[in-house]
Design goal:
about 15% strand; two-stranded antiparallel sheet; alpha/beta; Rossmann fold
Length: about 210
């Protein structure tokens, strides 16, 4: 693992998310997954086919990192993966400071950074211009970070996502291409119940 000190540039938004995301995550059953909305939800829905260990958000922009932190603290024996877009993470970037302070060993985060606000019209996001989220994570106390700009870094990123010396934070710089086509289940009651069963938690308690 290393601290990411590379120069941030919008010219590195080249990777295809449809192949890069599966390459980094590998077998999704290794994780409890909290996915952000929009493109990230489609990426994870397509990869997992909405298996019970994956919870996909819709409309709750900025909530994925906070939910992942709570889940990691509540389920210390499970590896928790938060998958979020850059736009969503920017909505609640202060959560990184709390994660850096709490330091859950079993929490890893994958930010799919295409430099766009995909949920609100595909405008260029702050990461397209000046913001480097890996450096924000470092400044928040998350020491293990990596920015993936080429396929040669896939293997290192995949190892970091499985590290139990967390928290860790991986930024995947991808092109503005569309995520995988996937028609997800928006039945909140059903998906919540499935995820609770995956946690082996009595639904009446939470």
């Amino acid at each position: 693992m290393r601290k990411d000190r590379d120069t941030h540039t919008n010219e590195d938004l080249l990777l295809d998310r449809r192949s890069a995301v599966p390459a980094l995550i590998g077998d999704p059953s290794d994780f409890l997954i909290i996915s952000g909305l929009s493109g990230a939800a489609r990426d994870i829905g397509y990869l997992t086919e909405e298996t019970p260990n994956a919870y996909l958000l819709g409309g709750a922009m900025g909530a994925a990192a906070s939910m992942g932190l709570g889940l990691a603290l509540a389920q210390p024996e499970r590896q928790v993966l938060v998958v979020s877009g850059d736009g969503e993470l920017l909505m609640n970037v202060g959560t990184l400071a709390t994660i850096g302070h709490m330091r859950p060993h079993n929490l890893t985060m994958l930010c799919i950074d295409n430099g766009r606000y995909g949920e609100t019209g595909n405008q260029k996001s702050h990461t397209h211009h000046t913001v480097d989220l890996a450096k924000v994570a470092q400044g928040s106390g998350i020491e293990a970070t990596l920015t993936v700009r080429s396929e040669t870094e896939f293997a290192q990123a995949a190892r970091l996502l499985r590290s139990r010396n967390g928290p860790s934070f991986v930024v995947l710089r991808v092109s503005d291409g569309a995520p995988a086509k996937y028609n997800r289940n928006f039945d909140a009651v059903e998906t919540k119940a499935k995820f609770r069963r995956a946690l082996h938690v009595n639904p009446k308690i939470i």
